[in-house]
């Protein structure tokens, strides 16, 4: 029996969000139920400008990586990009290849083919070294390729690892590494895709072409405070704050008696309203001190005229960052935010192609975020919003355009679900079946006819992938059911030579959704066992796989989705250890039959305007599911069965007063005459969605559960 759970919330919290962020009551109540109450969290739901993303130079190693790539360009070195076979890996490869190629580097890329193992291979290292290469950049892989990177060093190759997977206990050496999951990465958000990490590198490379790269600039502000003055400074490098100074100074104090001289030494000093700042500094330190400041306000006003003549006191109140801050806004904070915005806009003004390049990249970053099931929070929301926005504006990048044409997606409003279930699944099919190069060719080819042909081939591969997935399920589910009791009802393990390695991850995912326990799907390529693991119920697979690492040739991935390999001869040992360790697995309570209700909507308020509420939470996905509404006592005006064959659906017409709502319950035709009849009044759980038919868009309910009132 299903459980309907509607969390009790504070009315005062809802009202505070309404007033502070100008949201409607339903949206505010949903935010509170989902614990979206901090300004930082709400910002990513209310804003879509990439200005709110994190700086690429937050990565501690970013400047070193950029310098190494610039050196490769200047020295005319050969560079190899080595990526992964999935959508994230191919997208990351594409974004980096296009950037380096545009910058004039001698660059080529390589992806796993056929039954190649995941990650950088010794073959790739040896062949590239033999071709007089000197720099390898791994994308969406590499963090666990210790042996291969050590071999590269022996061959005289430098390696840059650009990854987002969980790092092993011992990092590959020697290598420059950018991975948000490193403890000392410096990056404030760990859960971005491999393609997003590459996009950060590409953004940093583009910034390196400007006069502001490596430039240390100090922002300085002086403000009276009672009988004294406060001097505030933020020192920046590549637009990232690296040091702060905040001192209170009494008039007449010598500047040498403060920390200012050492803090400002060798710096460019920017101020807002130079005349006023100079006068205040003179009042503090006298006329004999020259701070040699540059008044940035007139320059900023050229790009942002509405700021001309405003004081910092006024500017800080205009800052959107301040609006979402959980602490009072400061003048120096407002100055920093305006300064970064100004430099970013100035860069785009000086490099007019930048906006177009970024837009093309962002569509692939959006795809990767959805494909790798990144949580739809923080800057991932900006990436997907921006990608969808340009796609729906008709500015679709090459390759993606041809594939979407074959999928009949060009004449409709595309959603994150469309990208996940249609575009991503087709692109992944190419890599799963050993043809990742097709997906890369689709994005990188300059021949439109060829791209169209590749798109058609990818469609065919997805059809083949579906058959392989169905076949795998047919002979795996019986073994799966038998394995669960053997593993203490905490794990499902399927080991079968017939499983195509390209669908092992799909099979593991289906096992998880069917049996509500973590699952392993293992197959074989010659004498090597290849396994995929998927998890659920808050169980992090990292510790389990790390415990098994002495058995493995390689392993790695994410907390809830990982892969591994071992020699066939160790199969018996693997099975015994997994069975033994399964007893230690701790799973949270099953939530498979529990529905978390976001908002209860009385019948008179069930209108098409609920779509606007849903739109405020798009894009939906991992950690941000579709909004689940509940309504009570809706009369059933009509009921019919739809569909042919085994899967039939229930279509109801529900009354809400003045409005009649179509309501679909997928695969639940059997409920008619058993749980519901025309004339009944029912309570329903549902999503509100748009139905497209013959070019017309109409709202509809998609039911998840119903009960007689």
Q: What does this molecule look like?
A:
This protein is of the alpha/beta class. Helices cover 40% and strands 21% of the residues. Strand 8 (228-237) and strand 9 (240-249) form a beta hairpin. The longest helix is centred in the middle third of the chain and has 39 residues, at 448-486. The mean pLDDT is 94.
Short description:
With 709 residues, the chain is α/β, with parallel strands linked by helices.
- Gross morphology: globular
Low-pLDDT stretches are: none
Number of helical regions: 24
Strand content: 15-25%
Helicity level: 40-55%
Query: What is the CA-CA span between the terminal residues?
Result: 16 Å
How much is the radius of gyration in Å? 29 Å
Class from helix and strand fractions: alpha/beta
The quaternary structure here is single chain
Q: Please describe the biggest sheet, giving its number of strands, its sense, and whether it closes into a barrel.
A: 5 strands, parallel
Mean pLDDT: 94
Number of strands: 23
- Strand line-up across the major sheet: 3-2-4-5-6
Topology:
Blueprint: E1 3-6, H1 11-21, H2 25-33, H3 39-46, H4 62-74, E2 78-82, H5 87-102, E3 106-110, H6 122-130, E4 135-139, H7 146-154, E5 158-162, E6 176-178, H8 194-207, E7 216-225, E8 228-237, E9 240-249, H9 260-264, E10 268-271, H10 274-285, E11 293-295, H11 297-303, H12 312-318, H13 320-323, H14 331-350, H15 354-371, H16 379-392, H17 400-406, H18 416-432, H19 436-444, H20 448-486, E12 492-495, H21 504-515, E13 519-525, E14 528-534, H22 542-547, E15 554-557, E16 561-567, H23 571-581, E17 594-597, E18 599-600, H24 610-617, E19 629-642, E20 649-655, E21 660-665, E22 681-693, E23 696-708
Parallel strand pairs: 1-17, 2-3, 2-4, 4-5, 5-6, 7-10, 10-11, 12-13, 18-19, 21-23
Antiparallel strand pairs: 7-8, 8-9, 13-14, 14-16, 15-16, 19-20, 19-22, 20-21, 22-23
């Amino acid at each position: 029996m299903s459980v309907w759970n509607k969390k009790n919330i504070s009315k005062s919290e809802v009202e505070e969000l309404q007033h502070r962020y100008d949201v409607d009551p339903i949206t505010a109540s949903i935010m509170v139920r989902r614990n979206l109450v901090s300004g930082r969290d709400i910002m990513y739901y209310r804003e879509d400008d990439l200005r709110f993303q994190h700086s690429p130079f937050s990565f501690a190693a970013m400047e070193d990586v950029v310098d190494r790539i610039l050196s490769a360009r200047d020295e005319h070195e050969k560079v190899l990009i080595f990526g992964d076979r999935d959508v994230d890996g191919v997208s990351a490869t594409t974004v980096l290849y296009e950037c380096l190629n545009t910058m004039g580097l001698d660059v080529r890329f390589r992806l796993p083919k056929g039954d190649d193992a995941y990650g950088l291979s010794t073959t790739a290292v040896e062949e590239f070294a033999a071709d007089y290469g000197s720099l390898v950049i791994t994308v969406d892989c590499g963090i666990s390729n210790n042996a291969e990177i050590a071999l590269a060093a022996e061959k005289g190759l430098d390696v840059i690892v650009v990854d987002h997977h969980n790092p092993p206990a011992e990092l590959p050496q020697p290598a420059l590494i950018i991975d948000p999951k490193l403890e000392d990465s410096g990056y404030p958000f760990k859960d971005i895709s491999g393609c997003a990490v590459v996009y950060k590198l590409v953004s940093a490379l583009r910034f390196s072409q400007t006069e502001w790269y490596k430039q240390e600039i100090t922002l300085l502000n002086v403000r009276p405070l009672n009988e004294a003055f406060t001097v505030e400074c933020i020192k920046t490098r590549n637009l990232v704050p690296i040091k702060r100074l905040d001192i209170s100074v009494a008039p007449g104090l010598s500047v040498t008696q403060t920390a200012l001289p050492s803090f400002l030494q060798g710096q460019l000093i920017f101020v807002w309203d130079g005349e006023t700042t100079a006068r205040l500094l003179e009042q503090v330190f006298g006329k004999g001190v020259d701070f040699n400041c540059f008044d940035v306000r007139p320059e900023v006003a050229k790009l942002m005229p509405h700021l001309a003549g405003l004081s910092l006191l006024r500017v800080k109140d205009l800052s959107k960052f301040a609006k979402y801050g959980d602490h009072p806004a400061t003048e120096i904070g407002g100055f920093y935010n305006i300064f970064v915005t100004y430099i970013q806009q100035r860069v785009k003004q000086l490099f007019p192609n930048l906006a177009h390049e970024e837009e093309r990249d962002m569509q692939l970053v959006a795809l990767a975020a959805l494909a790798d099931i990144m949580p739809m929070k923080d800057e991932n929301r900006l990436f997907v919003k921006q990608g969808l926005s340009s796609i729906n504006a008709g500015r679709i990048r090459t390759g993606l355009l041809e594939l979407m044409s074959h999928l009949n997606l060009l004449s409709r409003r595309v959603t994150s679900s469309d990208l996940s279930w249609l575009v991503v699944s087709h692109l992944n099919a190419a890599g799963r079946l050993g043809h990742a190069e097709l997906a890369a060719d689709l994005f990188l080819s300059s021949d439109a006819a060829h791209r169209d042909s590749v798109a058609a081939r990818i469609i065919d591969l997805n059809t083949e992938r579906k058959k392989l997935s169905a076949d795998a399920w047919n002979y795996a589910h019986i073994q799966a059911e038998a394995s669960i009791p053997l593993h203490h009802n905490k794990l499902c393990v399927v080991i079968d030579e017939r499983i195509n390695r390209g669908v092992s991850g799909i099979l593991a995912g289906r096992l998880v959704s069917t049996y509500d326990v973590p699952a392993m799907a293992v197959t074989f390529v010659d004498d090597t066992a290849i396994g995929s693991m998927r998890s659920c119920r808050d169980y992090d697979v990292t510790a389990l796989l790390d415990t098994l690492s002495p058995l493995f040739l390689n392993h790695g991935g994410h907390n809830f989705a990982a892969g591994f390999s071992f020699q066939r001869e160790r199969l018996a040992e693997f099975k015994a250890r997994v069975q033994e360790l399964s007893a230690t697995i701790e799973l949270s309570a099953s939530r498979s039959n529990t529905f978390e209700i976001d908002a209860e909507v009385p019948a008179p308020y069930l209108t098409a305007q609920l779509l606007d509420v849903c739109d405020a939470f798009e894009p939906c996905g991992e950690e941000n599911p579709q909004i689940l509404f509940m309504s009570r006592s809706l009369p059933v005006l009509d009921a019919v069965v739809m569909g042919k064959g085994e899967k039939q659906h229930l279509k109801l017409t529900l009354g809400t007063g003045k409005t009649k709502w179509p309501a679909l319950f997928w695969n639940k035709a059997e409920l008619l005459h058993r749980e519901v009849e025309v004339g009944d009044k029912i309570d329903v759980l549902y999503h509100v969605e748009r139905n497209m038919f013959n070019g017309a868009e109409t709202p509809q309910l998609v039911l998840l559960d119903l009960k007689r009132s």
